[in-house]
Amino acid sequence: MPLAFAVPINAKAVVALVLFAAGLWLLIRRAETRRAFRRAAWVVGPAALAFAFWLVNVLSHGVEMREFDVTSHILAYLVIAASFTAPLRTPVLRIGFSATAAVLGGICLEQHYVEGIDRVYGINNGLWGAIEFGMYILVLSLVAVAQALRSDLRRGERILHGVFALLGLYGALLTQSRGPLLAFVPVFILVVLIQSKRTGRWREGLICLAVGVVGAIAAATTLHGEVFNRFAAVQEEVSTYSEQDATGAVRERLEMWRTASMAVRDHPLSGVGLNQFGSYARARIAEGKVNATVERYDHPHSEYLEWAVTGGLPGLAVLLLLFGGAIAFFGRHAFHRENAIAIPAIAGLSTVCMYALCGFTDNVFYRAMPHSLYFFLTLGLAVYVGLMLNRAARPAGVR
């Protein structure tokens, strides 16, 4: 599924349909599946609330239903999550997720070194997709890092996960996406520290951190300074931004955030409606209140401002509950003594943290690819953790 989200093949919908049918059957027929959902309520509940909230928002604002298209997929992933309670071959699952990071990283390498694309963006997006593609690969790479630090796996498989993670990380670096790369650093440290504490292998964890730092510096150096130049440009653009001078990626963000703040003040409770930030901004441009440099944007480049603008402060509260509930659930179980519970919890925690951090400077849900990855992983992993927790709590000999 993670690979299917990232490729432009219509037939991938068949895979999702099969999992949807399987999930629906499991929900109807298996009490164990339903119990797993109840155990995962801190993740499942806010996702269901988000679906209902945006449906009401669209209907109350008279917005065309096509604007609800991507958001409506949440309902599908709520059902697909039940498929994680089916008998799974976990070695295939974990290697498959890590290998996906490597495949997508390989696509980045091909685009940069063969096609000569300076800032790679994957095969399911145009240039505007570089940021979300970078975040996408980093999320899967973090899952591979967690697997590489598992003490219960054979050495060969751990090395394989490490190699896959490095390929994904290098590919993400080639996207030159500042927000995801900055967000990755604390989440990477978090994953390493959790695994080091769980296993007691602090030396191995420190080596992993050192390899990550050295590898990132070496990789950035091979890019002839493009990554460093993009980061260096941030301070200059911030210091020179004004309402009259809003040209450049950072200045345009600042102008969009100023516009979003205006929208929240104008519509604090109801918002302007799902996906209607662009219309609001262009209306303010026509009034001379907003710089015309942001006319082409339909989203404010901040997921938090997006939900506050389009859904009002209640919308922002739903987003905070969506992230907060998942962080609380996965964080609580990330230190569990059983790898069958802790590893999927760590994978879920790193996914949520990446999206929550990237959401400060970019929209992470408005396109189908990153939207699908988030809800597929967080809902599925939460239900899987719930299943494992319920099984662990059974008295010996009870099936």
TrEMBL record:
Main location: membrane
Example of a GO MF term: ligase activity
Alphabetic keyword roster: Ligase, Membrane, Transmembrane, Transmembrane helix
Location relative to the cell: Membrane
Keyword Iron-sulfur part of the UniProt annotation: no
Positions of transmembrane segments: 6-28, 40-58, 70-88, 126-146, 179-194, 206-225, 307-330, 342-366, 372-389
Bilayer topology term: Multi-pass membrane protein
Domain named O-antigen ligase-related: residues: 164-320
Protein name: O-antigen ligase family protein
